[in-house]
Queue: 2 jobs
Job 1
Amino acid sequence: MPNENQGLSLDGQGKPLWLSLELTYRCPLKCSWCNNPLDFADYGSQELSTAEWKQVLDDARALGALQLGFTGGEPLLRDDLEELVAHAERIGLYSNLITSGIGLSEERLLALKAAGLKHIQLSVQSSQPGLTDALVGARAHAGKMEAARLIKKHGFPMVLNVPVFKQNIGEVDAMIAWAADLGIEYIEFANIQYYNWALMNRDELMPTLAQVREAEAVVNRWRDKLGNKTTIYFVIPDYYEGRPKACMNGWGAIHLTVAPDGVAMPCQEARVIPGLQFESVRDKSLGWIWHESPLFRKYRGVDWLPEPCSSCSEKDKDFGGCRCQTFLLTGDAGHADPACSRSPHHGVVQQAVAVREQAVRFQKPLIKRSAQAVITDFMDA
Ligand code: FES
């Protein structure tokens, strides 16, 4: 096995346990924190066909994949979603739909259930219609609320995913109250990661540490109140942690993303790193890409790590952090992740935090994913 000569101990024993299949970059929303590439529109006409996606599913299953997320963009925009879910079910893959909820009619939900969909992750941003609609750049709030109701009505296990940033961090209390009322068992408050669109809007989106701590305290009060009925995750941004996150559980360890045009990557953001050789499932087998391609081998394991990571006692826990973030913040994906306080590049993260901590008011409008639309009304610090 190619992994052996890289000195690895992969949790998945060399298998891509978790697949992230980005069926399309198309989306009816215009979120300013979207993690799709800035040039997503360039890939619009290159989406894999139904037959090509089925081949990806077969190949991934043969490699040992167990579960997958159909994601995007908005995966509901693919008319063949039910067909792909059914195929995944037939070959023994556990399917999760990661959706904004826009377009999730009751009819479609029932069709997906009949096809074998097992789990849904629904993203919501706020309990207030005006705030949600302004944030996502579309009339979406009512549709999202209805999608949540339908998902519960039809008995799907679900995670309510709330991307957290400055403009909605004050919504944590109201969101939990609403979700608990609806009987949602898992709520994830995910402080956003600053790549692509979110990085462009970072100074406007980043909450202060005090706001993060306050929101965490609200979550803890609800945890006490709700007990085992509801599990609430609250992910602290690594900018404030002083330690890097174990991104993807290590590069090329258990995670495999396939982009709409068939490019297979160790994470959804890898295309931000220049100089890497990206391969498409249209040209190469998924098995070769996973095991042999220079892209997946580049930062796999811990043998390649620079100092101070290579002599760090935590390298087997965090695998050196996030390559994409490191490139975006330092210009070299091979540096030590600047989120780590031991990194010689930690200053760039400290500076971003300091800028945010000092800002009294937001200065700039948020840049929307697709255009230069402006939202300004709820930006007081
Ligand atoms: Fe690419 Fe972290 S997002 S390695």
Job 2
Amino acid sequence: MRPTYRVTELLGDGIGAELSQAVHTLAEALPLDLCFEPVDLSLENRRAARDAVYDQAVASILANGVALKYPTITAEESPNQVLRRRLNLSVIHRPVTTIPGVPTNFRRDLDLDIVRIATGGTYDDPGRMIGNDGAVSLRIVERQAVLEAARYAFTLARKVGRRVTSASKYTIQKATDGLFERVTNEVAAQFPEVEHNVELFDALLAKIIMAPDKFQIVLVLNEYGDFLSDMACGLAGSLGIGASANLAFDASGVVRVALFDAAHGTAPDIAGQNRANPTAIFLALALLLAQLGETGIAQVLKDSTLDLLRRGVRTRDLGGSESTTSFTAAVAAEIRSRLEPVG
Ligand code: NAI
């Protein structure tokens, strides 16, 4: 019997409709059933329905556990921020891979999984002035948040056979970053089969550039994750085709809710023209499938997409001549051909 999963689908603006169609076409090529439950987060509907649309989205996501979100216009509010707050999405998993066909100044291959604690650090406190010439802000690190992120990183490492590097400035920020590394070590001790090493964050940046193959899963506090994600995307040249998982956990540290999205926006300049590149949303779907436990199918989806790009089957933004629909059809055919011999 084919496994069946319910997935909340957060419809957006611009190229969102074309991406949704592409995702549905791809889903038909998979040996499982994804029952999509749509919630309309388009700007028009957000303005008409106001809080009710977020109530509907949150209820659906909590019931289904997983959601796929298409890009939305940030106007009065950022839907991403609203959902992050309302669902307590406290960890961001952002894979960054050099993608064949994407021009980059960096000549090496990069394949990082950045696991970032998305709360605290220096970002929860804007700081305050002390008199006219000084300012101070709080840096917040909490055991629970580190536990959740570390458990996620090590579980992922065990599942996919990769190693974990935790990085911080524990030699200087002894209390905050010291706590981060201590809690991470406690979690690492529960995963003896996973290789774990510790780097100072500044050294890590240099080492990733000089020897990217040494790094696989990188676990970091909020601001470091922010810096590292952008640096890695810049190296990979793939700011536009990144995807991420936004995660919330239950009291025992198990993922309770996971929302997957593409990093790019609504691309209003090409909306409705069958020109959108669906790579990022396909990679987001692969992350979603992995979260559902379908790691094999997730890998086939990811490999099929990337191998086609490598072979020159690309949309126009990557210098190719494929449309959204023709690229999607090619990925669907590739997936079918790879899954046939075993299925
Ligand atoms: P954008 O990412 O939409 O577009 C930047 C450039 O990249 C455009 O030339 C666009 O055509 C191209 N592009 C983006 N995605 C593409 C794709 N999948 N295939 C082919 N080309 C693609 O960024 P921009 O123009 O700054 O923002 C447009 C709107 O998107 C804004 O309203 C912004 O608020 C929203 N936005 C939403 C995000 C989200 O929902 N996660 C993230 C970023 C922006």
